[in-house]
Amino acid sequence: MARKETAADAANPGRLKQIALTFKMTRKADPMIVLALAGVGIVTFGVFLAIGFLIGHPVYLGILGFLLAFLAMAIVFGRRAERAAFGQMEGQPGAAAAVLDNIGRGWTTTPAVAMNRSQDVVHRAVGKAGIVLVAEGNPNRVKTLLAAEKRKMARIVSDVPVNDILVGNGEGQVPLKKLRTTMLKLPRILTGPQVTTTNDRLRAMGDLMSNMPLPKGPMPKGMRMPRGGGPKAR
Questions:
Q1: What angle do CA 215, 218, 224 make, to 5 degrees?
Q2: Which uninterrupted H or E stretch holds 76?
Q3: Average pLDDT over residues 49-66
Q4: Which helix (H) or strand (E) holds 106?
Q5: Contact criterion met (CB below 8 Å) for 109 and 124
Q6: How many angstroms separate the Cα of 78 from the Cα of each of 26, 70, 84?
Q7: Which residues cross the membrane (predicted)?
Q8: Once rounded to an integer, what is the mean pLDDT over residues 68-85?
């Protein structure tokens, strides 16, 4: 019992520190956050308190209004903090991977399965919707990466559906802030065991390519290194 209380006491400062850091980040990107939270809290509490005076129970409605005001402020803070976070991440390399890492249970994410010199990148997520390739970068360049990765998926797991999403704000693209929602709306086609099997096959192919032996001596002209390959340090 004492151990549980000690762990809880140690966790609380961490949570408070995280909330404080989140608030500072949000306030930096959204200077109106304090006024917005104060407005929501005061209006919610005021409405319930006024109703309490009208019906003759100001204390009870005041307490309820205080609790609901706190809840409303927490909801508004969460939404504005999320908006601020997406605003700071948008346009940054790897932003889509950060969203995919927090998509929720049932998804396995592998960041940067394909990339070019211009930092256009393709990430892979596997779930009950099948395989989803999420690309970020220049739309014209990244389409070539997507096409090559889809061909590779067709060779490895031809029986699994492959969807592709291009992150961006242009026509036919999905904004970063809507990426998670778009992924979760995809129709579920695979069962749990099929998802596990798909992940195992993809991991096995990755291990096979990373462990592929390299020829000794000069590399033959025209021969390319396997993606993700290279000799391992011993």
A1: 65
A2: helix 58-89
A3: 91
A4: none
A5: yes
A6: 10, 12, 10
A7: 33-53, 59-78
A8: 84
What pLDDT is stored for residue 167 in this prediction? Answer: 85
- Residues 192-220: pLDDT tens digits? 899 989 888 888 876 434 433 433 434 34
C-alpha 4/C-alpha 10 separation (Å) is: 10
Buried b (16+ CB within 10 A) or exposed e, 21-55: ebeeebeeeeeebeeebeebbeebbeebbeebeee
